[in-house]
């Protein structure tokens, strides 16, 4: 089933905008702007699912708008349908070469616009689903390493641009090999699932996320969070795992499952890459293990 989508309509002709809105507004949320500059500005603050884009407009053309969308990582995958009175094969071919998904000739039939919009939205919905499945860990059903890498890069760039802090936590279950050896691999799998959901359940802000980093390791990415807040959050995560009270009679540091955590924070992110942040968190985790486990060690990267 097709979900209600957000569609940006860009056309300098008020009548076209009105008819397109009337055609689509019963099934979708529509946003109307009258030129390319306003479209690009609008997209900086609002995410949409599809753009219907006129080509000949005052100011920058629809072609130029599409070129700029393709240059920006956050908009390059957005489906664009050109709608234009330029109906030569060359015009149409140019639109597709630039990356448009479809090309509708003016004057247009509302029924055909509806059908073509529907087709593009169905393709996008399926692509989004595939993208989501590729980002989910099969065992725990929380975000996987691929999701973490992509989103950490994005958050790193954002933190650099805005000069805001960014924290990363690396968490590792203590003596998990002994747990598997004692209770069996299947019980180990169940334990991983319970821990994953306990960690994810502690993320209250939409921007925070926990991913399975690999094996018995998890990571959290915490945008706009400085060292002290990140330490508090790490404590919450450790308490949540302790609170599960999963018996671990083979553990050498407790009678139940515990985790150790390395915390790394970059306080103004100009110099180091996101990989340094993960390396620092890993170093903190190593120190936490070394210090006896069920422990949190925080490290701050200060940039000059
Ligand atoms: N059941 C289960 N076990 C896993 C999975 N992935 C990794 N492991 C196990 O996690 C264990 C990790 O062991 P080690 O790296 O030696 O670490 P540890 O025993 O937790 O010891 P410390 O980290 O030093 O506290 C190994 O026995 C892996 O087989 C998984 O998906 N399921």
TrEMBL record:
Keyword Phosphoprotein assigned: yes
Domain Response regulatory intervals: 6-121
SMART domains attached to this UniProt entry: GGDEF, REC
EC numbers, comma separated: 2.7.7.65
Stretches assigned to the GGDEF domain: 164-301
GO terms for cellular component: plasma membrane
Keywords, alphabetical: Phosphoprotein
Cofactor names: Mg(2+)
Biological processes, Gene Ontology terms: cell adhesion involved in single-species biofilm formation; negative regulation of bacterial-type flagellum-dependent cell motility; phosphorelay signal transduction system
A Pfam family matched in the record: Response_reg
Signal peptide location: none
Record-level Gene Ontology MF annotations: diguanylate cyclase activity
InterPro entries registered for this protein in UniProt: CheY-like_superfamily, Diguanylate_Cyclase, GGDEF_dom, Nucleotide_cyclase, Rev_trsase/Diguanyl_cyclase, Sig_transdc_resp-reg_receiver
Reactions this protein catalyses: 2 GTP = 3',3'-c-di-GMP + 2 diphosphate
Modified residues (4-aspartylphosphate): 54
Protein name as catalogued: diguanylate cyclase
Organism from which the protein derives: Pseudoalteromonas porphyrae
Lineage of source species: Bacteria, Pseudomonadati, Pseudomonadota, Gammaproteobacteria, Alteromonadales
């Amino acid at each position: 089933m097709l979900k209600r989508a957000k569609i940006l309509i860009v056309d300098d002709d008020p009548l076209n905008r009105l008819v397109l809105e009337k055609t689509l507004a019963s099934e979708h949320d529509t946003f109307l702007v009258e030129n390319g500059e306003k479209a690009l500005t609008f997209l900086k603050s609002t995410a949409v699912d599809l753009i219907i884009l006129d080509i000949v407009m005052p100011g920058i053309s629809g072609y130029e708008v599409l070129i700029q969308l393709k240059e920006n990582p956050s908009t390059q995958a957005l489906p664009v349908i050109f709608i234009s009175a330029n109906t030569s094969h060359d015009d149409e071919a140019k639109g597709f070469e630039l990356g448009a998904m479809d090309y509708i000739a003016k004057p247009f039939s509302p029924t055909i616009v509806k059908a073509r919009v529907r087709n593009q939205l169905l393709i996008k919905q399926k692509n989004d689903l595939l993208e989501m499945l590729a980002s989910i860990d099969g065992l725990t059903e929380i975000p996987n390493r691929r999701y973490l890498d992509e989103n950490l890069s994005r958050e790193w760039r954002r933190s650099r641009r805005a000069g805001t802090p960014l924290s990363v936590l690396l968490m590792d279950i203590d003596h998990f090999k002994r747990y598997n050896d004692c209770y069996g691999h299947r019980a180990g799998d169940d334990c991983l699932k319970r821990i994953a959901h306990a960690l994810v359940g502690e993320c209250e802000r939409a921007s925070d996320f926990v991913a399975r980093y690999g094996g018995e390791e998890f990571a959290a990415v915490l945008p706009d969070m400085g060292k002290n807040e990140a330490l508090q959050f790490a404590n919450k995560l450790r308490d949540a795992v302790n609170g599960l009270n999963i018996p671990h009679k083979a553990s050498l540091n407790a009678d139940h499952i515990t985790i150790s955590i390395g915390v790394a924070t970059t306080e103004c992110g100009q110099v180091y890459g996101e990989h340094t942040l993960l390396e620092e968190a890993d170093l903190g985790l190593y120190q936490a293990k070394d210090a006896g486990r069920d422990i949190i060690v925080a490290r701050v990267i200060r940039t000059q």
